[in-house]
Request: fold
Amino acid sequence: MLSVKNLKFQYDSSTKFEIPDIHLDAGEELLIIGKSGSGKTTVLNILGGLLKPQQGEVKLGDTILSSLTGAKLDKFRGKNIGIVFQKPHILSPLTVVENLKLANFFVGEKGAQNLDLLKELGIFDKRKSKVTTLSEGEAQRVSIARALANHPKLILADEPTASLDDENAAIVVKLLQDQAKKFNAALIIVTHDQRVKDHISKHIIMGGLV
Amino acid sequence: MNMIKLSWKYLIAKPLNTGLNILLLALGLAIITVLILIQDQFENKMTKDAEGVDLVVGAKGSPLQLILSSVYHIDYPTGNIDMKDAMALSKNRLVKNIIPLGMGDNYQGYRIVGTNHDYLALYDAGFESGEAWRKPFDVVLGFEVAKKLGLGLGDTFIGSHGIGSSSHEHDEHPYKITGVLSEKGNVLDKLILTSIESVWYSHDEGHDHDKFEADVSITGFPETDEDREVTSLLLQYRNPIAAVQLPRFINSKSALQAASPSFEISRLFELLGVGVKLIQGLAVAIIIIAGLGIFIALFNSLKERKYDLAVMRTLGASSGQLFIHIVLEGVILTLLGAIVGIAIGHLFLAVLVMQNEQGAISGLSAAVFLQEELWIVGYAVIVGFVASLIPAWTAYQTDIAKQLTKS
Reply:
């Protein structure tokens, strides 16, 4: 389902990232772990189609992601890749459910499953709230719901547990795993957080041992 | 969710900012709206009231004043002329029709104008009720006069000397209303019309009851063997040559002055034009400032919104959609500004008209919508589009990865 081959990227001559090949089937999970500066966010950006690799190929399903450009890439990303950021980044002028609907709108989806999604993530009651009235945990769950709003094939999570305590970190990881299984999507979590290791068996370590 | 709704949500997330931008633009556009409305209606009204009057003859003085007082009944007359001179002029072969006017009195600020029935025919006046005057001191009220004063057929009143409302009353003889004109939307609506004889007799010292019972003249000049005066004459030319010869002929005679309404009015608009241009310039300056305000607001908001824009891109928005998103914000702002501006303009004019019941402005209407106002909307949208171009371009070029990784 997801295959990454011979990926190379460098910002300048001193920082050069060699990125290991990745093969992931639908429903599989992967943890990319590494300290800051090891290039793990760069990997996430390349996998999400936010950054173009200088070499190599990213293939999701039948589409070679790394060869798409412009609006085609944007639509493909919106439809097939759900990204959960370290900070929730909910669009503050919109309500919770409007944030989901916006994700639907950009790829032309109806968003029939939005309310179920909010129910499952336990934020149904907050669907008409603005982000400013949400707690950090709730906001995090909204950002997960938004990433899942278009039933992506690939879920990317960037440091989703960084600002959470042990208990909540475990809950969030579990949540991501459950949803990925439910949608039969591949899940990649990028983090420096050692706690996540206990929950996901398949690891890639970047920038040497942590 | 769609692009318009998205932009709208971002606008109402900052109500103060949005409101002030709309208001500033609306003020500029309101000034333009008022100017357009007044100019259009003034010109329309001025042209309509002067229709059929080729030349006005009166006492020496300012030709513009003569036109304003005799055709539009807004300025003071230049004085009176000897009726013998006037009658001599009516025999001129270049004159097709001549209507004498006698002015000098008012009732509650509405001018009492002595004339003959030709004056009614000139404006094709119809009667709401009653009929035209037959005897001295019979009067016909303009539609608005009757409505505002609450007078009707058979009522009587005593006129005051002078043409402003504060002058002293004639206590001699009351006027009797024999007719009320139907609404025409022209100068007649605000006049009280009567015979020339009524105006004369109300200023005479003694009472001559025989005269008061005699019929007044319906057309032409009143018959009299006394030395009498009239205020001015409305003339129609018999042929185009008259336009060349007649004014020169009249002006060369020492006692009389001739003035052409169309010439004087275009001169008036030329004089007013400087002021109108100045106000227009001010309005344009306000609109430019409003446009700049919108530009600055959008550009500043972009700084804090770069993250939002990057997130939208990750959700599947193309850079073109972000461009549209920002442009729509500018266009929605200015569209609302235009609508509010036009509304304020009409409201302002309505208040202006309400406060000037008898002046030159009182004949205007705030309930008229012109095609030019659609142009205002068009221009406003263009302002919004131009003001949002640079911010929209910046949004278009937002580098998502760079934006999302710097926190």
